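ARCHIVE CARD
CATEGORY: sequence design from structure
SOURCE FIELD: tokenized fold
FIELD CONTENT:
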């Protein structure tokens, strides 16, 4: 009785393999039909648990950057990461198209203090600080120590180690990361959300509860459509014009032009909870 399911599975695997090979021979016109994308999709549990694919691509990226990019060249570092993601192994960073949206938002906000949730391999932090004023500093919270190590090496090679700080942890870890960051009231000008999508809204509420934002602080959120952050989207739309002013940027999932995605750029209007007296 098991023969048919096994045969169907074998046929499916053979079909996918043939499609990937054909796509490769055709110059990869369909970006999803790549072994690195399929491995990424099959790494779901580990990705949620550890924040990395686990097939060595993150370390391979660090080696690629250090071997091919002149030290201190942030533009070349960003270009090398894009090239690696397009042609070697898919990476779950913000990508080239949405990276421009991120940089444009940073230029409009002109932040001095930036907070990023989700460093991954350090790509989005480089794009953000490149667009920020020269005296700006970015603090990147990353749940994976291995990812944080890759990001630090990439930042150092790009000459940005003095402007970016990695903090290993998560906003929902009982206050340890909030305490480690220790921002003063109203001192965070820009937040970029690109970590676990279900954590977007609760982590934003924790940041608001800590009192770190001020009227005019900007929060940019990636992947609001795919994989999706429906509660975050509903929250921003529900408070449009009262607590937030949001621009919805329609774009595509990183490194392809077939799957649509949504990036939210939200400016804080005030009226949010403030921390108790004496809180940092």
């Amino acid at each position: 009785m098991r023969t048919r399911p096994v045969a169907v599975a074998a046929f499916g695997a053979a079909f996918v393999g043939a499609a990937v090979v054909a796509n490769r021979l055709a110059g990869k016109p369909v970006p999803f039909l790549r072994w690195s994308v399929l491995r990424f999709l099959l790494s779901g549990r580990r990705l949620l648990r550890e924040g990395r694919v686990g097939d060595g691509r993150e370390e391979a990226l660090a080696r690629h950057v250090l071997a091919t990019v002149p030290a201190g060249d942030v533009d070349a570092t960003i270009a090398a990461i894009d090239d690696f993601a397009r042609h070697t192994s898919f990476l779950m960073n913000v990508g080239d198209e949405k990276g421009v949206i991120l940089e444009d938002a940073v230029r409009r906000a002109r932040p001095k203090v930036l907070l990023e949730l989700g460093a991954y391999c350090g790509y989005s932090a480089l794009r953000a600080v490149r667009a920020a004023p020269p005296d700006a500093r970015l603090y990147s919270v990353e749940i994976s120590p291995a990812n944080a190590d890759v990001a630090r090496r990439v930042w150092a090679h790009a000459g940005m180690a003095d402007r970016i700080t990695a903090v290993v942890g998560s906003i929902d870890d009982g206050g340890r990361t909030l305490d480690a960051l220790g921002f003063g009231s109203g001192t965070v000008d820009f937040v970029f959300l690109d970590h676990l999508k279900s954590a977007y809204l609760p982590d934003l509420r924790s940041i608001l509860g800590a009192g770190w934002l001020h009227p005019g602080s900007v929060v940019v959120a990636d992947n609001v459509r795919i994989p999706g952050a429906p509660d975050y989207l509903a929250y921003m739309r529900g408070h449009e014009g009262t607590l937030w002013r949001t621009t919805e940027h329609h774009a595509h999932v990183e490194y392809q032009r077939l799957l649509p995605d949504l990036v939210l750029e939200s400016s804080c209007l005030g009226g949010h909870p403030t921390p108790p007296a004496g809180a940092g």
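CARD ANNOTATION: Residues 1-27, 275-280 have pLDDT under 50 and may be disordered. Residues 3-25 form the longest helix (23 residues).
SHELF: design records, drawer C
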